[in-house]
């Protein structure tokens, strides 16, 4: 399985919204709504932020939202905060494959 | 609160076998519906799914690693384990264990394994 495609980096100012895309194929992202998103701060384990495409685990801010269109899933973070600066990874359970990761910089 | 903790040698010699164990506390590894997985992350790089196991012993392995990977489970100890054979420097990574549903919702803190002579 090939890794899902994410932009290497995105940036935004505090209060703004950003979107991170995650492109796969009809065999993974496009097959089922089983995309999850993980936030990883330096030296820490990944943290689940979105599962089954658009669901938020308990305790995750509603500033984080997920969606999917065709073979591309997206993570949107609204009202950017300094603490959101981290690496973000998408993952498709169909194929058990991760994206390459996106570094989010809060300017 | 479910907790996972990886343990094992931090240094492995090339061509030898890497062995790690994940101990689960705060819940039973025999819970239905969940697989238990291993994921790794080379320094400065992204995440890679290694494989997963159900409490009954059913496994999934990443096709690119399948020939070298064995994942096993010990329900009596609430643990599952990873063995990766014939390691090279490319296998140097932080290795994480995690609970797997259609997502990875609980993760261990990770353990760095370095392959070097």
Q: Descriptors for this entry?
A:
heterodimer; A: 107 residues; mainly beta; 6-stranded mixed beta sheet; B: 117 residues; 7-stranded mixed beta sheet; 4-stranded antiparallel beta sheet; 11 strands
Could you give a quick summary of the protein structure above?
Chain A is mostly beta strands. Chain A contains no helices and nine strands. With 117 residues, chain B is mostly beta strands.
Task: Describe the model.
The complex is a heterodimer of chains A (107) and B (117). Chain A has 107 residues and is an all-beta fold. Chain A contains no helices and nine strands. By secondary structure, chain B is an all-beta fold. Chain B contains no helices and eleven strands. In chain B, the strands form two sheets. In chain B, strands 2, 4, 5, 6, 9, 10 and 11 form a seven-stranded mixed sheet that branches. Chain B has a four-stranded antiparallel sheet with strand order 1-3-8-7, with no helix packed on it. In chain B, a hairpin with a 3-residue loop joins strand 9 (93-100) and strand 10. The model of chain B has no long low-confidence stretch (mean pLDDT 96). Chain A binds chain B through residues 1, 3, 34, 36, 38, 45-48, 51-52, 57, 89, 91, 93, 96-101, and chain B through 46-49, 52, 60, 62-63, 96, 101-105, 107-110.
Which oligomeric state applies? heterodimer
- pLDDT < 50 stretches of chain A: none
- Mean pLDDT of chain A comes to 95
Estimated structural class of chain B = mainly beta
* Average pLDDT taken over every residue of chain B: 96
Count the beta strands of chain A.
Answer: 9
What fraction strand of chain A? Answer: 35-45%
Shape field of chain A:
globular
What is the C-alpha radius of gyration of chain B, as a whole number of Å? Answer: 13 Å
SSE-based structural type of chain A = mainly beta
Using only CA atoms, what is the Rg of chain A? 13 Å
Give a short account of the largest sheet of chain B.
Answer: 7 strands, mixed
Poorly predicted regions of chain B: none
Biggest β-sheet strands, sense, barrel of chain A = 6 strands, mixed
* N-C termini distance of chain A: 35 Å
Q: Termini of chain B, distance in Å?
A: 39 Å
Shape of chain B: globular
The amount of helix of chain A comes to under 10%
């Amino acid at each position: 399985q090939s890794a899902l495609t994410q932009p290497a980096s995105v940036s935004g100012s505090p209060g703004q919204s950003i979107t991170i895309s995650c492109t796969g194929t009809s065999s993974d992202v496009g097959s089922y709504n089983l995309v999850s998103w993980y936030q990883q701060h330096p030296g820490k384990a990944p943290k689940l932020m979105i599962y089954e495409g658009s669901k938020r685990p308990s305790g995750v801010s509603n500033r984080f939202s997920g969606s999917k269109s065709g073979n591309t899933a997206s993570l949107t973070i609204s009202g950017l905060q300094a603490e959101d600066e981290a690496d973000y990874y998408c993952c498709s359970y169909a194929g058990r494959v991760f994206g390459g990761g996106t570094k989010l910089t809060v300017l | 609160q479910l907790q996972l903790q990886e343990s094992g040698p931090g240094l492995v010699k090339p061509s030898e076998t890497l062995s790690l164990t994940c101990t689960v506390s705060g819940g039973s590894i025999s819970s239905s519906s969940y697989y238990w997985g291993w994921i790794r992350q080379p320094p400065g790089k992204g995440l890679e799914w290694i494989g997963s196991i159900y409490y009954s012993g059913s496994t999934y392995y990443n096709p690119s690693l399948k020939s070298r990977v064995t994942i096993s489970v010990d329900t009596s100890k609430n643990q599952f384990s990873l063995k990766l054979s014939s390691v090279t420097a490319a296998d140097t990574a932080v290795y994480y264990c995690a609970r797997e549903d259609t997502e990875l919702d609980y993760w261990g803190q990770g353990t760095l394994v370095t392959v070097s002579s």
